[in-house]
Amino acid sequence: xxxxxxxxxxxxxxxxxxxxxxxxxxxxxxxxxxxxxxxxxxxxxxxxxxxxxxxxxxxxxxxxxxxxxxxxxxxxxxxxxxxxxxxxxxxxxxxxxxxxxxxxxxxxxxxxxxxxxxxxxxxxxxxxxxxxxxxxx
Length: 137
What we know:
Elements: H1 6-11, H2 15-33, H3 55-74, H4 76-104, H5 111-134
Helix pairs in contact: 2-3, 3-4, 4-5
């Protein structure tokens, strides 16, 4: 008996899992292509001037975590754990989005930043729920 082809295996993946894995992989790649996009959501309180936990370091770490989450969701044996961890990751990212929103409404904030971060923050809720639901697929 021949093993299933990659396209046959992909066809068996639930759409919700495949969609979230694709979103995570695209976002993860973007962390390395356009790291500046993520600068505002890295809270200054957790960054250091040098070492692995600079702003760029946190962005690279989160990109790697998102790649790992995407891969974990695609493997049926790891999907439950990956869905749980991805939900926790998205919930944790909420702190960064709150920090960015607070700064956007601060004295140095701009109208554009206020709009962007006012829209980005509420997106965390459906992302947490979506990741949590992949545990059951």
